[in-house]
Amino acid sequence: MLYLFYNADLLEEATRGNPDTATGGWVDDIYFFTRGPTTEHNCNTLLRMHGRAERWSATHGSKFDMKKYQLIHFTRSPKRFNTKQSLDLPGANIESTAQVRYLGITLDQPLRWWPHIKHVQAKTSISIAALASLARSTWGTRIRPMRGGPVLTCSSVRNHAATAFASTQRVSSGNPTAEKSTSSSL
After folding, report:
1. Please, which pLDDT band fits residue 86 given cuts at 50, 70 and 90?
2. Looking at the structure, do residues 74 and 25 belong to the same domain, yes or no?
3. What is the residue-wise DSSP string for 43-71?
4. For the chain, what is the domain count?
C-alpha cells in the first residue's frame, strides 16, 4: 500500500502539462498513455514522459527495468498509421507489438479483446476440469454442491485486474474525429 503513495508523484509528474496523456499503475507496474495524430508524435510524447520518469527515479532511488517495457499503438485503422513505429529510449529501443499483457489483461491493437477472451476461456476450461475431477459419480463430493463452484472460480478469473482499468481519469483529444488519431502506450 505504501508503494502507491511512493510513486504517486511519478504518475503526476509524467503527465504534467499535457492533457493528451495519462498514467496509472498498481504497486510497481505503471503505464504511460498518450494520444496524438501520428505514432511518431506519440513516441516523442512517450520519450518526454520517460525522461521525466528517469529524473524522478534519480531522486527516489528506483530503477526501471527496460526489459519489462512494452509498446503498443492502439488503432482500429492500422493502414493509416505506422504501427511498427518503435520507441528509441536512451539505452534501449522498444519495438511495437500487436498485443501486450498488463496486470493479467491482454490488450490488442484494435482493442477488440479477442486475445484476452481466448486466454480467459482457456484458464476457465482448466479450472472447470480441475473442479470436475473432484466430483465423480462413485467418489468425491456430490455433483449438486459443486455446481456453484465453477461459476465462482470462473468469475474470479474473468474479473482479475478489472479494477486496475476502471479509471476515472480521462484523456481529452483536441480532435473530435476519433478515426484521425491514434493512441500509444508504454
Report:
1. very high
2. yes
3. HHHHHHHHHHHHHHHHHHT----GGG--B
4. 2
Residue 185 scores a pLDDT above 70: no
- What are the pLDDT digits (tens) for 26-85? 777 888 899 999 999 999 999 999 999 898 888 888 888 888 889 999 988 888 888 899
Which domain covers residue 142, as residue numbers?
113-160
CA distance 180 to 114: 24
89 shares a domain with 17:
yes
* Per-residue cell: 23: 498514467
Q: Judging by DSSP bridges, how do beta strands 21-26 and 72-74 pair with one another?
A: unpaired
Asked if 36 and 78 sit in the same domain, the reply is yes
Among 32, 30, 10, residue whose Cα is nearest residue 20: 32
